[in-house]
Design goal:
11% strand; 3-stranded antiparallel sheet; 4-stranded antiparallel sheet; alpha+beta; 314 residues
Amino acid sequence: MTGEVPGGGAGGARDAASGPRPAGRGPRDQRPRALIVTLYGLYAREAGGWLSVSSVIRLLAHCQADGPAVRSAIFRLKRRGLLEPARVDGVAGYGLSVEARAILDEGDRRIFARRRAAAGDGWLLAVFSVPESERDQRHRLRSRLAWLGFGTVSAGVWIAPGHLLGETRDVLRRHGLDRYVELFRGGHAAFAPTAERVPQWWDLPRLRGLYADFLDRYGPVLAAYRRAGGPAGEPGGAAGEPGEAAAFADYLAALTDWRRLPYAEPGLPAEVLPADWNGFRAADTFFGLRDLLAGPAHRFAAGALAGRPDQPAR
């Protein structure tokens, strides 16, 4: 699963007076396209990569995405070559393309590994020069490097933590951009301390804002689940409505908002970040939600997908 495809918005519930949002409820500001990518990344691959249109609509109704918007988003993903139409037992649906599978597999390693570089791991430099006659390729290359989380040292020299070498090499090759680039690994030798240079290479205020939005939205959700002892209706959870549907909606939303953040900030060494870096707390929040919600969310999705695929959507 990855941030290479369009990400959902990370707007937060900023009204502190309203208190924590009850788990499984509240407005969603995420685009259906981003939710569909997350849904396929989580559950379609274990089902052969195919989901019926009606099941996608039915599941995303729990995230307050309406049917026409979901159908339109599926069509746009098809047009981008990420989904391919297919009928299974006469039921209309879409499967993952080869490219989409590769993107999702790469994304799993970035999003779920929680990898953070150490100061001694070194840096990866991408040095490139693209002829003026190929300006479109220069734009594509810069876009790919930015998506991978590279910072900018100068116009043709970009930098990332050293552990991104394999992923960078694979992505640039897949997009036919490797012929413009040379990759180097090494240490920062001089002249200023690295911690002073990092804010010049990466837009740390922007990254801090992205993490703050995530914490504003999902910190209260995690706190509410912890107070309740887990999703309602789960073993050890509070009494109330069955919790799997709520867990599914909250986990899908959290992962949709989280999956772009390990790309925006690619695991920079803690030693070169501010001591109060809120990215650490954001990661704790996401993985706390994953620990609580991934299991019941999976059971809910599996149950929904095991039903009749042509049942009317909600």
